[in-house]
What does this fold into?
Amino acid sequence: MDQPDAKPAHRKGLSKSLVLAALSGATAVSLALPTLAQAQPSPSPEPPPPPAGNTFLEGPPPPPPAPGGAGPGAR
It folds into this structure.
């Protein structure tokens, strides 16, 4: 009386197919990444327009405070 084995035979082609799938996936990624790395960046936004009117007629900026001068916490 012939009975089938309780433990099925090892699939010999499984490891080879997994290796080929991993290799093809790695190849696809390595081919896609250089094109992404060389992509042109998006253009920067335009700077805001200058203020209206002549800003030179407003006068020079105020002088800086003297060093060591009396501040809010000086005694």
Notes: The chain has one helix and no strands. The chain has a mean pLDDT of 75. Residues 13-37 form the longest helix (25 residues). The radius of gyration is 37 Å.
